[in-house]
Amino acid sequence: QQQVKQSPQSLIVQKGGISIINCAYENTAFDYFPWYQQFPGKGPALLIAIRPDVSEKKEGRFTISFNKSAKQFSLHIMDSQPGDSATYFCAASTGTYKYIFGTGTRLKVLA
Amino acid sequence: ETGVTQSPTHLIKTRGQQVTLRCSSQSGHNTVSWYQQALGQGPQFIFQYYREEENGRGNFPPRFSGLQFPNYSSELNVNALELDDSALYLCASSLFIRNTEAFFGQGTRLTVV
């Protein structure tokens, strides 16, 4: 029940296309859902986060869609660029305690 | 780049040895969490420190221990190293506020041989 399931494991998108990464959870006590971007040899960097009282949040080219009833949330990267090629992790938490991370999606954007 | 710094960046240890990893939290942050990230996996929560005390622990054995200092910096200690301890160890700093963002350092790559 503490898991966050992330898909797909890897994704290849053409430059300018839309990248979509999905996550699902079971624990309804989760109330904070961040997305992190990680480049090889670096720590995860916070991209965008959402709380379950909203269904969508947009920051630049990055959008989180949240479906509370389905216990699913997704990251959309619009106008994907080669510089977006990285591993993306969704996460969930209950308050200040700990993040439960998904298994990651390796995104490659072709030039 | 975040203000979270970790040292060292890389480390090679022999099985059975002990290791200490260090983390300086971002200015103004009072909470430090440690994560272990095995190759190709998501980070796994080890424990969190707030006000110099452990505030929650993940599924890690007692040979993983930590400290937080008055300036909010932190150490992760691992005793009796095992080959499976080889991983990227990440420190994240945050405020002790519900649903606040956590900012990660670049990590320490530990290799146990």
Helix content of chain A: under 10%
Strand content of chain A: over 45%
Coarse shape of chain B: globular
Biggest beta sheet attributes of chain B: 7 strands, mixed
Question: How does this structure look, described?
Answer:
The complex is a heterodimer of chains A (111) and B (113). Chain A has 111 residues and is mainly β. In chain A, 0% of the residues lie in helices and 55% in strands. Chain A has no helices and eleven strands. With 113 residues, chain B is mostly beta strands. Classes of the chains: A mainly beta (111), B mainly beta (113). Chain A binds chain B through residues 6, 31-32, 34, 36, 41-46, 49, 51, 89, 91, 93, 95-104, and chain B through 2, 4, 6, 31, 33, 35, 40-45, 48, 50, 55-56, 58, 90, 92, 94, 96-107, 109.
Please outline the helices and strands.
The complex is a heterodimer of chains A (111) and B (113).
Chain A: E1 4-7, E2 10-14, E3 19-25, E4 33-38, E5 45-50, E6 56-59, E7 62-67, E8 72-77, E9 86-93, E10 99-101, E11 105-110
Parallel strand pairs in A: 2-11
Antiparallel strand pairs in A: 1-3, 3-8, 4-5, 4-9, 6-7, 7-8, 9-10, 9-11
Chain B: E1 5-7, E2 10-13, E3 19-24, E4 31-37, E5 44-50, E6 53-57, E7 64-68, E8 74-78, E9 87-94, E10 103-104, E11 108-112
Parallel strand pairs in B: 2-11
Antiparallel strand pairs in B: 1-3, 3-8, 4-5, 4-9, 5-6, 7-8, 9-10, 9-11
